[in-house]
Amino acid sequence: MKKFKYILMSLPLAFLWSCSADEGTEPGTDSTPVVTMYSYAPEAGSGMNADNDIIVRFATNNAVTELYYLVEAEDDVNAFIDQNGSDAYMQKVIENGVKVDVKGAQNIDENILDQHGSIMVTGVATNGSQRTMANVSFTGLDWNKIVSGQFSANNIIQGSKICDLEACVQDKNLYRIKNAFKDGYSLKFTMMGLKGTNPETGQAFYPVRVPYAQTGFTLNFQDGSSSPLWVMDFAYWQEDSSFATDSNYWCIVWDDFFCEFNLAWLVNGGYVAYGSAEDGKGNTSYFVPDDM
Question: pTM of the prediction?
């Protein structure tokens, strides 16, 4: 493995993060039927695929006598409402959607499976002629293989794992090392939009961010307790984005797809180890393409 093939240089500090969320209407206590909707990612190990499955919670108020929901492409929903209005779309949900057994105030969870691209789940709560709707959005992810290789966590997890580096179809900045840990447990990372160059070779590299990810491994402790093992990049762990552009702690991808990840390895109550260029403990993780 070519751990020391590159000499790194500093990068400028410039990046931007953004987020958004859909909110429903708070359940009321009057005669108007109201449904509030929330979406949740399935837990690792649940058998569901967080890339394409979501859990939707329908929270109804006391006035709801019937509840329906419909899953459609988000663009199709918006186009229909723009052309026909919200009332017409509520009628479509009632006529073509799934009816959920409900009576009054309840929380009902529904698994919405195998979704691809941007979709919208719309719920309609009714009571006689009165009806209201709410919705949540979700983007199901698809992936294209870039290159096969091996992922090694070095001193943290013994041995290396044969896996693929993949690019997300829906998000040009999102990548993953599929099954980097156990099967079904991938390492996702996002390009920051920054570029550095090795001053000796001229080869380019790109800093990335690695959010929270479960590994599928469990650590057992001497006191008989145990904890799941998960990872995130050093900057997320320390809640300090400057570490993402610090050559001692960053995660980067080279233009030949060789990847270096300085990760924090965490359990309930603290950390097990972390990778850095200066700790000398060999805890940096690598993805090495097959052709290297």
Answer: 0.81
